[in-house]
Amino acid sequence: MSGALHGRVVLVTGAGRGVGRGIVDALAAEGASVVASVHHEADAAPLVAAVGGRTVAPVCDVTSRADVDAAVACALDTFGGLDAVVHNAVSNRSNEITDLEAATPALVAEHMSVSVRALLHLAQAAHPALADRRGTMVVLTSPAGIQGTHDRALYGMVKGAQRGFLKSLAREWGPEGIRVNGVAPLAMTPALERAFAGDPGMETRLSRVVPLGRFGDPARDIGPAVAYLCGDGARYVTGQTLLVSGGRFTAL
Amino acid sequence: MTVSLASRSAVVVARSGGLGDHVAAALRDAGSRVDRAAPPASRTDAERALVGDPDVVVWADVDPDALVPGPVVGLTEAEWVRRCEDPITSLLWVVQAAHAHLRGRNGRLVLVCPSVALEGAAALVPLATAAEAQRLLVKSVARRWGPDGITLNVVSVPVTALDPGLSVHAPDAARTGPSLVDDDPIAAVAATVVWLASREAGGVTGATIGADGGAVMAP
């Protein structure tokens, strides 16, 4: 690794597991100080022990404005500033196949709060710090937010919302030197691993439709794309969604 | 070719006095029966709004508050909910309630939303966030309901069609002007909705058609 993020402070939401954990690994490998916010307290100590370096892991429910304020304060108090915010957290039910016609208001609210309301919380809480350092925001959206998805329409809906948000905020914050981008990954997640374990042929079948022949690894494939968007190499990139899908999705 | 919606029954979901009035009039002119409904606050409200058993449902509503420009950092949470989240969930209730009416009879659902959301808009973040959520809901449901013979599409319109005074206040509202000169852009929007509601458009689903005079031309 190049140490391209040495001296940078990055807040990552939903950092305890899956893609979020891979993003933390990639950012730390590039020398960043990472505020790896976790939803489950049990994930905090193992994460800090494994990643080491300049990493802290506060508990944060992104649907709570107070928790988000505290996570930003943690970055300022621990590392003296904040250069980037990465919103990766999603509802624990995001991978569920949804019977849209029967989706309850409670389920809809769960999707909306973690993926959409949290964007407002993060933007408002982090803006002063990001403006101080001409920082950046990265939103983990999804190919489902570009192409739609027949069996997880609520997920496609909130991921589409995130794209509308990031494109607009990029325009709003551009004059302050703050960049806002998205990453739409096709990644191996814990939920997918469980599904593959239950159906040994599933991974081979699904991988056939990926030109690179595999699902993205959170630390080696997805995290580096986030690290790139957080770094100086992307200093003229804003309002974009980077598809990191092994070529599975090519239509914008 | 004149599109006929004779024997069609439509519901236009929109508050009165806006774009919905023009869309409703165009649907009537094409021969459809048309009922009106305000954006519902719940699934129950949505089912009540569709009690006339429509085979065409059009959403053409924008909350006037969402057209008030302002920075994200200045929004209260209540303003965010009203301008961004409420329109998303309201459309969702309509979609849920519409399925039973639209399936098996070449049903149509058309969403009208501001084209500026395709590119993003400074000072209109809640509006653009809501519009993109609505658009992706329609795309996803288009994939889902295709086997039921239902089409769902999006007509993206100039944001100035929703509020002619907006370009003065929001820097991104009309940053790219239309390529076409049209004396009546609202009528052009309504005509596109009528076509998508027709049987002639039966092969089109999940599409976003720009009826903004070529302003955005998004892929």
Keywords for this structure?
heterodimer, A: 252 residues, alpha/beta, Rossmann fold, seven-stranded parallel β-sheet, 7 strands, B: 219 residues, six-stranded parallel β-sheet, 8 helices, 14% strand, globular
What would you note in describing this structure?
The complex is a heterodimer of chains A (252) and B (219). With 252 residues, chain A is of the alpha/beta class. Chain A has a single domain (9-244), classed as 3-Layer(aba) Sandwich (Rossmann fold), CATH 3.40.50.720. Helices cover 46% and strands 12% of the residues of chain A. Chain A has helices spanning 18-29, 44-51, 65-79, 105-133, 144-147, 153-173, 190-198, 202-207, 218-230, and strands spanning 9-12, 33-36, 55-56, 84-87, 136-140, 179-185, 241-244. In chain A, helix 1 crosses helix 9 (218-230) and helix 3 packs parallel to helix 4. The longest helix of chain A is centred in the middle third of the chain and has 29 residues, at 105-133. Chain B is built from eight helices and six strands; from the N terminus they run E-H-E-H-E-H-E-H-H-E-H-H-H-E. Chain B has helices at residues 19-29, 43-49, 77-102, 116-119, 125-145, 159-162, 166-169, 185-197, and strands spanning 9-13, 33-37, 56-59, 108-114, 151-157, 208-210. In chain B, helix 3 (77-102) links the parallel strand 3 (56-59) and strand 4. Chain B starts with 8 loop residues before the first strand and ends in a 9-residue tail after the last strand. Classes of the chains: A alpha/beta (252), B alpha/beta (219). Chains A and B meet through helix 4, helix 5 and helix 6 of A and helix 3 and helix 5 of B.
At the fold tier of CATH, the topology name of chain A is: Rossmann fold
Give me the side-by-side strand order of the main sheet of chain A.
3-2-1-4-5-6-7
Question: What's the overall geometry of chain B?
Answer: globular
Number of E-type strands of chain B:
6
Judging by the overall fold, what is the CATH architecture of chain A?
3-Layer(aba) Sandwich
End-to-end Cα distance of chain A, whole Å, is 31 Å
Q: Which class do the helix and strand fractions of chain B yield?
A: alpha/beta
Extended strand count of chain A? 7
**Overall geometry of chain A:** globular
The CATH fourth-level homologous superfamily of chain A: NAD(P)-binding Rossmann-like Domain
Protein chain pair with the most extensive contact, residues per chain: A-B, 45 and 44 residues
CATH class category name of chain A:
Alpha Beta
Q: How is the main sheet of chain A built?
A: 7 strands, parallel
Unreliable segments of 5+ consecutive residues of chain B? none
Quaternary state reads: heterodimer
Rg of chain B: 16 Å
> Could you state the order of secondary-structure elements of chain A as H and E?
EHEHEHEHEHHEHHHE
**SS summary, helix count of chain A:** 9
